[in-house]
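Sanity check

After download, print the first record. It should look like this:
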Amino acid sequence: MNKLMIFALLLLPISTIAGVGGGGVGPRPTNMMAIDIVKTLAMNDESVTFLYKAYDENSTMSQTIPISEVEPEYLNALTSSRKSKSWVSVTKK
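Expected structure tokens:
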């Protein structure tokens, strides 16, 4: 019985360090990645029309802007979205 109690007392600090103690909700993420997503609706040499959802928003926005004003990360995601015809996350460097 004493060995069982000692074993249980040893596990308590280890499980707390591992992030699974104190409430049993499991480990929590420490850093949520901020990722925007886009879906291309139309794209030509001059402009792009797309749906945009920012990581901190619940709704999407439709935007049409000139290609020359699109940041490279977003242009890559919009091009990929155009090919796949689905939502694509924006990879920021």
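If your output differs, re-run the checksum step. Summary of this record's structure: The longest helix spans residues 2-18.
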